[in-house]
Structures are given as C-alpha cells and as structure tokens.
Amino acid sequence: MNQTTSRLATAGNGITDRAQEYSDEVRKTASRARERFSDALDQGTEWASNKTRDVQATSKELLAAASDSVTARPLVAVGIAAAFGYLLAKMLNRD
C-alpha cells in the first residue's frame, strides 16, 4: 500500500505541475492579447481623432464657401432656398 500511495502522490504532483504550466501559459497568452488589444485601441482612437479634426476642418471650409456664395449673390441664395422648400413640401405632402 505504501508503494501505491507513493505512485499516487507522484502522479498528483505531475498533474499539479502540468496544471500550473497550463495556467502560466494562459496568463501569458492573455497578457499578450491584452497588449495587442490595447495597441489596436490606441491606434483606433488616434485614427478617429484625426478623422474628427479632418471633418471639422472640411465642414468649416464648406460653411465659409457657402457663406461667401450667399454674401456674393443673396437673391440667388433666396431663390434656391425657396425652390428647395417648395420641392420638399411637395414630397412630404404626397397623398
């Protein structure tokens, strides 16, 4: 019986060692995945921030151009707005 107990203890220690190795590997893999995700998130945040700045700059340029056009030809702008309003009302009031 003493031999059986010794064998079981040895097998139990082997299983414990393997479980610890697997646990360490899982921890390392999770750490690498977390680092990759963090890097990807940083890159995505930077990209979104750059695109937001680009969109803001473009919208300011378009607004300035539209303002200049209205200032240069106010009657044309009023006519275009009236025509657009008329067409929009026609489309929304269809029966």
Architecture overview:
- The protein is mostly helical and 95 residues long.
- The chain starts with a helix and ends with a helix.
- It has one domain (2-92).
- Helices cover 95% and strands 0% of the residues.
- The mean pLDDT is 90.
- It contains two helices and no strands.
What count of helical segments does DSSP give?
2
Strand content: under 5%
SS-based class: mainly alpha
Shape annotation? rod-shaped
Q: What is the first-to-last residue Cα distance?
A: 95 Å
Overall residue-averaged pLDDT value: 90
The Rg value, from CA coordinates, equals 35 Å
Task: Describe the structure concisely.
With 95 residues, the protein is mainly alpha-helical. The protein has helices spanning 2-72, 74-92.
Topology:
Elements: H1 2-72, H2 74-92
Write out key terms for the chains shown.
mainly alpha, rod-shaped, 95% helix, single chain, 95 residues
